[in-house]
Amino acid sequence: MSEAAARLATMPTRPARASLDIRHDDSRLRYRGAVSLQRGPGWTAPWRLPREEAALYLPEGGLGRAAMPSGVRVTLRTDSASLVCRYQADPAPTLNGPEERARLDVVCDGRRADTVKLEAHGGDAEFRWDGLPGRMATVELWLPFYHQFRLRGLAVEAGATVEVDAPGRQPRWVHCGSSISQGRGAASPSRTWTALVARRNGWDLTSLALGRSSCLEPMTARLMRDLPADLLTLCVGVNVQALGSHHGDALVSALIGFVRTVREGHPTTPFAVMSTITAPEREEVPGPSGMTMRECRARIRRAVTLLRDHGDTRLHYLHGPDVFGPVHTRLMLEPEGSDRLHPAADGHPVLASRFGTLLRLARCVPIPTAAAE
């Protein structure tokens, strides 16, 4: 089914066929990648921070970013040939550059089956998808990465079997980053660079990437410390340099403290720290704290080197421009009147491929520790 056809199927009407309704809080549904769940009257909203304490993580008021379910997927197993999704999606915040459209990906047995354009007006809506195989299959709904989303419920064909998604043990990957990692510019939710890395490697992604909020916040370090993880990664630098949150020496100290806090819960888990990918307009231009992007990366490398010299041999540094560098600027968004900072849709697969390759070269790969689910 094409995206155009899916758009036609997106309408606030009930399915014509007899159906089996599945409540938003049904125990057979999993919200993979969510840190907490908010339950409302007839809906569930996944959050990527502990909702009750979200203001402690984002005191400047950007709580909406934590309710944007980047990397979150609603999963189940069913032998139905069709699926109806009832939902509410809020409009994206005002952004510089191209508008991010609300999309949801249907992934069946690990393969993206379709991308559905959602109605993002905050009210009730639904779409129907008739492309399921009609045999037992694992279905994942990858939720929008730049829109808040509330699931009201699902429906499958009457008489269909519905089971909880219980795959074999997947290594848990916890990633923290900025809007580059949240997915800005990606073609759809399962095609952000972090989603592509997770899907290609069979990793269970939890994304803590929040636009304008990757400044080594201590509460985020505590959360990474406490989440189950077989692999930890952090992309840092762009918000630090742009917002002036740390000057040179303070950046080194803050990153050392951040990593040491995470290490309290994961003393030997493979951990990669990646500096910012290429930022053409900021490489040699000082930010509010006086650092250029090149200087910012040098400080990040210094912090990682110090930690490794003090015994953290499973901590690795990835140089951002080696992952996505000057040769890739043609694959970046070029918003009018704004810096080039984010990969465009064609850039996300390139970033994902190179990130995965450099992780493997650094021998930074998951070491499963938890029992099978």
Draw up the topology in text.
Elements: H1 3-9, E1 19-23, E2 30-32, E3 36-40, E4 43-47, H2 54-57, H3 63-66, E5 73-78, E6 83-89, E7 103-108, E8 111-117, E9 125-129, E10 137-142, E11 149-157, E12 162-163, E13 172-176, H4 179-182, H5 193-201, E14 204-207, H6 218-226, E15 231-236, H7 238-243, H8 248-263, E16 271-275, H9 293-309, E17 315-318, H10 320-323, H11 347-361
Parallel strand pairs: 13-14, 13-15, 15-16, 16-17
Antiparallel strand pairs: 1-11, 2-5, 3-4, 5-10, 5-12, 6-9, 6-11, 7-8, 7-10
Task: Describe the fold and architecture.
The protein has about 375 residues and is an alpha+beta fold. It has two domains: about 5-165, Jelly Rolls (Sandwich); about 170-360, 3-Layer(aba) Sandwich (Rossmann fold), CATH 3.40.50. The chain contains eleven helices and 17 strands. The strands form four sheets. Strands 2, 5, 7, 8, 10 and 12 form a six-stranded antiparallel sheet that branches. The protein has a five-stranded parallel sheet with strand order 14-13-15-16-17, sandwiched between helices. It has a four-stranded antiparallel sheet with strand order 1-11-6-9. Helix 5 packs across helix 11 (about 345-360).
